[in-house]
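WARN  no MSA supplied for this record, continuing single-sequence
INFO  ligand: adenosine-5'-triphosphate
INFO  echoing inputs
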Amino acid sequence: MPDRTRGVEEQDYNGVKYWRYSDDVGYILRGTVVLFDSSGQIPIRTVPGFPHINRVYRLRSGVRRFFHTHPFFVEEKLDGYNVRLLIHGGQPLALTRGGFICPFTTEWAEIWWRRYGLDRFFADYPDCVLFSEVLGDNPYNSQRDPAISPGLYFFVFDILGGDGEFLHVRDRYRIVENYELPTVPLLGQFSSDRIEELFEVLRDLNEKEREGVVLKSPTSKRAMKFVTPSTDLRDIKDNLILEFDLEPRFIINRLLRASLFIKEFGLDEAEYASRLGRAFLDGYESLETFESASQTYNIYVQNLKTWNALRHMLSGHVTIKVEHVLPASLNGIEMLNVKFRRVFRKSTRRYREVIRGYGHID
Ligand code: ATP
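INFO  complex generated
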């Protein structure tokens, strides 16, 4: 029996029984999912959670420490949300990082199955899991990538084989090419003796306000992530208003990352001093007409049932306020456009007190 107190919960999605690990338990990662057969009695498959990727704050010494003089692949780090796509009992499923079967992403997965011919891939690799970053109009990451068209899109960044091991990077590239699967952009292969070229790649990503890179060993699980100050500044601006609901070092950690990048890359300090200040002033701007600490999301679903299931799932964590549910047509598919807000309780209460003149002891 699953034991909530030990970080395992029993869940059900449309009659599919599963357990989710809501915490790391021993060597089992948070977000790991155990799927049961149709009788709900026999566990038939464990889908592991996605391991953390180490962040480095200094590119030059990070690369040396992680890869020495060995070559590594550099992929763009796309800024969406982490989803595992798989087939279970003949049905596509989409699992969130936290280990829920997401009704919204699973509904989109059915569209993707048709659009990208995923049947062909899963017919050949029924036990594989496509670890993907999902971008577009979504209910999890309010910083929507402006380069993405309306709708929802996935980009494969890892493939778990039937043996429970991640494929090596080159094998993954070969498979996504053969099956024409959407994939995270590969920016090249580098090594520490070509670090100046990697610096150029990051300067360019920063100018284009892209999130950053993930560096991966061709032969092992070794990987590291490195993000741009444009991302850090945007995160600060967009999240100040949620400050009392965030993990404690959210803002200061981004200040550290941005400051180190600016120094290491020799960026114009006067420009960044001003941009940092602007991020704070713009971030707090909404306090002038403050009602609540919230983020707005805009999504497309095919069925009202999907939205209700998603809303139920999200309501466990935050308050959901619906702005509208309207019919919409997206690439020839009749859908519903749902606009809603996630309202963050602690920050709402605290900022309301702040602007109404309440006293606080710091
Ligand atoms: P952690 O990896 O420590 O759990 P996190 O949950 O805070 O970190 P991020 O800091 O956003 O997440 O970085 C890791 C995530 O980046 C991955 O879980 C994945 O969803 C996403 N990602 C985007 N592009 C890639 C890529 N090319 N390779 C691997 N992961 C990528």
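Residues 269-284 form the longest helix (16 residues).
INFO  checksum written, moving to next record
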